[in-house]
Amino acid sequence: xxxxxxxxxxxxxxxxxxxxxxxxxxxxxxxxxxxxxxxxxxxxxxxxxxxxxxxxxxxxxxxxxxxxxxxxxxxxxxxxxxxxxxxxxxxxxxxxxxxxxxxxxxxxxxxxxxxxxxxxxxxxxxxxxxxxxxxxxxxxxxxxxxxxxxxxxxxxxxxxxxxxxxxxxxxxxxxxxxxxxxxxxxxxxxxxxxxxxxxxxxxxxxxxxxxxxxxxxxxxxxxxxxxxxxxxxxxxxxxxxxxxxxxxxxxxxxxxxxxxxxxxxxxxxxxxxxxxxxxxxxxxxxxxxxxxxxxxxxxxxxxxxxxxxxxx
Length: 312
Fold this sequence. Notes:
Blueprint: H1 3-35, H2 41-53, E1 59-62, H3 65-68, H4 73-76, E2 80-82, H5 90-97, E3 106-111, H6 114-117, H7 138-146, H8 166-174, H9 193-205, H10 219-234, E4 237-243, H11 253-264, E5 268-271, E6 285-287, E7 290-291, H12 293-311
Parallel strand pairs: 1-2, 1-3, 3-4, 4-5
Antiparallel strand pairs: 6-7
Helix pairs in contact: 2-8, 5-10
């Protein structure tokens, strides 16, 4: 290849890469501006609402769908928020807890799943839901790096951090579900008689899942349990881990093992797995691991009572 041809290819390649880099940054700025106006939906709007309110809250509920749909924070405190997000695990919640203000008295209710706590394959991949904040929030960036959930190419092409969330952001920008001022994060699951009958049929056909004989705490869960305890103790926060009710709990050994581990770490743990053991009404349930709004109201009242008793 002639020298002039090689130089030409190098120049063209350079300008193409430069143009792609500039286009990426302009698009990223546009998406970030769009994201800053979205305050509903689990593609980022709910997290935006939490980040905007977190410094002034007294009580915050963290966790998966079993936190999101199960606890109405306003029943407990008028200055509260539920940042439960469907499908998330401890890395997502633990990272957001670490963004809370230093030395401000707050109660942190964190849902923990005994089953997920002993899952060998979990690597903290749910933290990638926060990718859009990678270049905006130092705490989130640090956590993603520590879990090796940051892609090197995303350091160059920032728009990739919005992968999978753009459509959701657009939807909630043009058609917001709630007023951000009135929304406190709780998303109840309403059911009707027909849905209850379907659930009853599912239960009749349901076969128990086999229990794991050897239980070892997942390394990511171990990391966050230790670090969150230290963070909350150092910053005037009461950390309470809890497990939401289950209609049919196939295994008890994971509950008992987790309870023992948390007791050893001197972490407050409320296990509500069998909360409805004496109330088998299907009106309390949406499915085997999710409560209806009726069941959620009962659980919320119990948590409120426990917190009030502690204060008294």
